[in-house]
Design brief:
Blueprint: E1 12-23, E2 26-33, E3 43-44, E4 46-49, H1 56-68, E5 74-81, E6 92-100, H2 108-113, E7 116-120, H3 131-145, H4 162-173, H5 179-186, E8 192-199, E9 207-212, H6 214-219
Length: 225
């Protein structure tokens, strides 16, 4: 280690993982009770300090992988949070990252192991420090992008109904979407493929299942719902 910058005060850098899922028509978030001081027992996002040999992205992927056991997820940086008094323990600057997962692919043993709960985003309790603001900013980011990027498919299983797709969009946007116009628009996208499989879980008649074709989308990524 060198002695450069020794005249400056050192600060800690951490990352916080904002992991969204979708279940039963609701946008949900993984949160848990803090297992350390300060703030032990308070509701919180799951995070960690950036290691000396880690980039911000490496640390974020490590934290999210620890939470979910899943790789190659949709993940984007939300922002940096550096209020002087945001952490009562030390001077800590945190960089928040948002990840989207399909709840059906998530190993619930990890949720239990890390003392986590899926909570509806519209029913969140008061969280530690500025974590509520991080979540608010993450949702705002999703809302800006959901109509121009295929984010919704990260929250769905490989095969999904159009009703499920519409429900995901509505859950993110926080508003209802006209069903007829939505389905008319969906039919214009070649990368949303109708399969021959019928889902009978919601009705006797059943509903056609669709899939997102990533290859077709990459060939023509024009997307706007």
């Amino acid at each position: 280690m060198t002695s450069y910058y020794s005249e400056h005060t050192k600060v800690y850098v951490s990352v916080d993982g904002i992991v969204f899922g979708f279940e039963a028509g609701k946008l949900k978030l993984l949160i848990g009770k803090r297992q350390m001081d300060p703030g032990r027992g308070e509701w919180s996002l799951y995070g960690g300090f950036v290691g000396p040999q880690e980039s911000l992205e490496d640390a974020a992927h490590r934290v999210v992988f620890t939470l979910t056991g899943m790789k190659n997820l949709y993940m984007r940086q939300v922002g940096a949070y550096g209020a002087i008094d945001r952490d009562p323990g030390e001077r800590v600057i945190s960089v928040a990252y948002c990840a989207l997962i399909n709840v059906g692919d998530y190993d619930d043993k990890l949720r239990i192991e890390h003392h986590l709960e899926w909570v509806n985003v519209d029913e969140l309790p008061k969280l530690y420090s500025d974590h509520n603001q991080m979540i608010k900013d993450a949702i705002a980011q999703l809302r800006r992008r959901v109509n121009t990027q295929p984010l919704s498919f990260n929250l769905l299983p490989d095969l999904f109904t159009l009703t499920q797709l519409q429900q995901v969009m509505e859950a993110i946007l926080g508003e209802n979407i006209d069903k007829r116009n939505f389905r008319k628009r969906i039919k214009t996208f070649d990368f949303i493929e109708k399969t021959e499989i019928i889902d009978h879980t919601s009705s006797k008649r059943g509903a056609a299942l669709y899939r997102f074709n990533k290859k077709v989308y990459k060939e023509d990524p024009t997307f706007k719902l």
